[in-house]
Design a protein that fits this description.
alpha/beta, 6 helices, globular
Length: about 280
C-alpha cells in the first residue's frame, strides 16, 4: 500500500491508564479509566507545539494516517493534518483522543465494571463535555504539556474546544471551533430525542444491557443514523449531493424506495453496523 507524501503514514493507537479517581459532573465517580490516543509529529523540547483534536459524536482518536493492512482506514480529518497540511505535523505535535464513554477503546459501557466483572452496560455513568475536557487535561499532564498551541474540533468536538477556553483558558493559546455551538437548539434536542427513542424502543436494547444478551439494537440504530444523517446536512447540501434522483426509470408507486438518497442513508448506517465495533450508547 502506497502512502501519499503529505500523509502522516501508518499509525497505531495506544491506551493510557489513569488510576486517579475521576469525579464526574453527575456526582458519580470512576475509580480508574483508560483513554485511547494517537499522536502525529514530534513534541518539541518545551512542549509548546502540541495541538489537541477533539472528535465529534461518531468519530474517534483516529484523526489522520492509515492502519497497516486495513483498506479505507484513513483518519477522519486526514485532509487537515499531515506534512504541509493546515495543521502541519512538521511543526506541530497533534493528539487525537477517544472520549470517555465511546465504543472505540476508551473506558465506556462495553468495559468491565470492576465491581461486577461484567460490562458496565447501562450502569456506565453519564458523561458530559466538561468531563471529557477534564480527562483531556489529565492526559496533557501525563504528556508533560502545560499549554496547547491550539485545541480544535468540529460539531461536538467544537463544543469541547469551547469548554477548554472556559475551564482551562490559561492552557490554550488558540481555540478553533468548526461548525459547532455552545448549546443545542430546541429543534436539535427534538431530533436527538426521536433518534434516542428509535434505539431504546428496539427489542434488542434491553434497557441498555444488550451486551449481557449478546445482541445489539441494530434496527433502532439504523433509523437513528438515518435521522442523524439528515440533520448533518442543510437542504441545499442534500439537493447538491443527492437531489431527487430516481433509482429507476419511473416511480414504483409502492412502499419501496424511489429515490437514491434514502438508499445512501441506509447503506451508511449498515456499513457502520458491519464494523467490529460495538454500538455506542448515544
Amino acid at each position: 500500500m502506497s502512502i501519499h507524501p503529505q500523509s502522516v503514514g501508518f499509525v497505531k493507537p495506544r491506551s493510557i491508564y489513569f488510576d486517579e479517581p475521576l469525579h464526574l459532573l453527575s456526582g458519580k465517580v470512576l475509580p480508574a479509566y483508560e483513554l485511547v490516543v494517537e499522536t502525529y509529529g514530534t513534541l518539541n523540547a518545551d512542549a509548546s507545539n502540541a495541538v489537541l483534536v477533539c472528535h465529534a459524536l461518531n468519530a474517534s482518536h483516529h484523526v489522520a494516517g492509515e492502519y497497516v493492512g486495513q483498506q479505507r482506514s484513513t483518519g477522519w480529518w486526514d485532509n487537515m493534518i499531515g506534512p504541509g497540511k493546515p495543521v502541519d505535523t512538521n511543526r506541530f505535535f497533534v493528539i487525537g483522543v477517544n472520549n470517555l464513554g465511546s465504543c472505540f477503546g476508551s473506558t465506556g459501557p462495553m468495559s468491565l465494571n470492576p465491581q461486577t466483572g461484567k460490562p458496565y452496560g447501562a450502569d456506565f455513568p453519564v458523561v458530559t463535555v466538561e468531563d471529557w475536557v477534564h480527562t483531556q487535561a489529565r492526559l496533557a499532564d501525563k504528556l508533560g504539556i502545560a499549554q496547547f498551541a491550539a485545541v480544535m474540533g468540529g460539531s461536538l468536538g467544537g463544543m469541547q474546544a469551547l469548554q477548554w477556553s472556559l475551564s482551562y483558558p490559561q492552557r490554550v493559546r488558540h481555540c478553533v471551533v468548526v461548525a459547532s455551538t455552545p448549546k443545542l437548539s430546541a429543534q436539535n434536542i427534538a431530533f436527538n430525542e426521536v433518534a434516542r427513542q428509535a434505539i431504546v424502543s428496539d427489542p434488542d436494547f434491553h434497557g441498555g444491557n444488550y451486551y449481557a444478551h449478546g445482541v445489539v439494537p441494530k434496527s433502532g440504530l439504523r433509523v437513528a443514523r438515518m435521522l442523524g444523517h439528515i440533520t448533518y446536512l442543510s437542504g441545499n447540501d442534500m439537493t447538491e449531493k443527492f437531489g431527487r434522483q430516481l433509482k429507476g426509470e419511473d416511480y414504483t408507486y409502492s412502499f419501496g424506495v424511489d429515490f437514491r438518497w434514502k438508499v445512501t442513508c441506509v447503506i451508511k448506517a449498515t456499513n457502520f453496523l458491519n464494523t467490529s465495533m460495538p454500538i455506542p450508547m448515544c
